[in-house]
Amino acid sequence: MVALANSMVGDHPARPVLVLSNNPDAGGLAKARDLGIATAVVDHREFVNDRNAFEGVLHATLERFTPDIICLAGFMRILTSGFTARYSGRMLNIHPSLLPKYKGLHTHARALQAGDVEHGCSVHEVTAALDDGPILGQARLTIGPDDTPDTLAARLLPLEHRLYPAVLRRYAAGERTPLFL
Fold first, then answer.
1. d(C-alpha 85, C-alpha 133), whole Å
2. Is the pLDDT assigned to residue 75 strictly greater than 90?
3. CA 181 – CA 165 distance, rounded (Å)
4. Structure confidence by residue, pLDDT tens digits, 116-147
5. How far apart are alpha carbons 139 and 142 in whole angstroms?
6. Is 161 a catalytic residue?
7. Which residues are CB-contacts of 146 (< 8 A; sequence separation ≥ 6)?
8. Contact, 171 vs 69, CB < 8 A?
9. Residue 54 CB neighbours (<10 A)
């Protein structure tokens, strides 16, 4: 989130209008406030067994700020088809794997367990299917013989911080062809 916000300056075609979290303790909220970005929290735990109510409040909160593009980063909730349809073509996500490989959780461990020689991250449009929208960019790294899930995650993070802002800039300017770093 900070990498995205910091990139949206100068001639960038987008500006951050809101950082919204489902976790009131998310560290990004304080960072966003320090950057002068409005923040909001919709705590999913307040909506036990009522995903529609949770997403209704998410939608209402987002609409108060009228975002053109929604960038998910660390938002670890599966969104319903009804919610994703509202923002079709306007919602991006970053995922720590070379999609379509390793949708969902534990991607670094899964790449190691499979004996992969490379790993990476993907930015994609969000659709109703989990981690399955059109790929807008990918960055790759070689898996080392001593890598662990933690070392892979740490080595991948700088690539995520390069890829997501680059894809967002292009996307906000209307460019949808995939970018590969």
1. 12
2. no
3. 12
4. 999 999 999 999 999 999 999 999 999 999 99
5. 11
6. no
7. none
8. yes
9. 22
Q: How far apart are CA 25 and CA 21, in angstroms?
A: 9
* pLDDT at 77 (0 to 100): 87
Q: Return the closest-CA partner of residue 141 out of 175, 107, 168.
A: 107
Amino acid at residue number 144: G
Q: Which domains does the chain have, with CATH numbers?
A: 2-174 (3.40.50.170)
Of all helices (H) and strands (E), which one includes residue 111? helix 107-113
Give residue 75's identity as a one-letter amino acid code.
F
The two structure tokens encoding residue 138: 């990918």
Q: Which one, of 65, 60, 61, 69, lies nearest residue 87 by Cα?
A: 69
Task: Write down the catalytic residue from 95, 108, 119, 161.
Answer: 95
The CA R_g of the chain, rounded to the nearest whole Å, is: 16
How crowded is residue 167: how many other Cβ atoms within 10 Å of its Cβ? Answer: 27
Query: Taking the complete model, does pTM exceed 0.70, yes or no?
Result: yes
63 within 8 A of 87, measured Cβ to Cβ:
no
Give the burial class of 103: count Cβ atoms within 10 A of its Cβ; 0-12 exposed, 13-18 middle, 19 or more buried: middle
